[in-house]
Amino acid sequence: MPRAGGLALTAVCGARVAPGVGTVLELTGFGDELAGAGLVVTGEGRLDAQTLHGKAPAGVAAAARAAGTPVVAVAGQVTLGPAALRAAGFVATYALTDTALDHRDAVDRAAELLRLLGARIATDHPSPTRPMIRSRP
């Protein structure tokens, strides 16, 4: 049910209330972008029970799954179990807290840990159409 502001806009201006993530995906042409994608990477600060109730990563995963494109998520922390994550459409998740020494370390070294996880994702999920390019030491 829309809140007071939403009710006013629908009554006075003829606006319609729509779920946020679906509207954003539609307005950005996300479905069109999926056509050439071999993998979708999405994320948020914490993948938890709220994620499954309309937050962006769940909407991205649902849209990508419908298009047959695998989805991985990156988060500061993941509290959902493997079954819930699979049911939501994620083929894998990566948490900074799994790589960091503790929560504080994950916050302090977020940029570094994200780079490390990005490299890990590229290794774990290579593109079938583009070869993996590895840097030389």
Annotation field: number of helices: 8
Q: Which structural class best describes the helix and strand composition?
A: alpha/beta
Q: Strand arrangement, largest sheet?
A: 1-2-3
User: What is the 3D form?
Assistant: globular
Low-confidence stretches: 131-137
Order of helices and strands: HHHEHEHEHHH
| Average residue-wise pLDDT | 84
Q: Using only CA atoms, what is the Rg?
A: 18 Å
Task: Please describe the biggest sheet, giving its number of strands, its sense, and whether it closes into a barrel.
Answer: 3 strands, parallel
Helix content: 40-55%
* Beta-strand segment tally: 3
Report the portion of residues in β strands: 15-25%
What is the CA–CA distance across the termini? 57 Å
Write the layout of secondary structure elements.
Layout: H1 4-13, H2 20-28, H3 30-34, E1 40-47, H4 56-66, E2 71-78, H5 82-88, E3 90-95, H6 96-99, H7 103-108, H8 110-124
Parallel strand pairs: 1-2, 2-3
Helix pairs in contact: 2-4
Descriptive notes:
- This protein has helices spanning 4-13, 20-28, 30-34, 56-66, 82-88, 96-99, 103-108, 110-124, and strands at residues 40-47, 71-78, 90-95.
- It is of the alpha/beta class and 137 residues long.
- The chain has a three-stranded parallel sheet with strand order 1-2-3, sandwiched between helices.
- Strand 2 (71-78), helix 5 (82-88) and strand 3 (90-95) form a beta-alpha-beta unit.
- Helix 2 crosses helix 4 (56-66).
- The longest helix is centred in the last third of the chain and has 15 residues, at 110-124.
- The protein is globular and about 55 Å long.
- Residues 131-137 have low confidence and may be disordered.
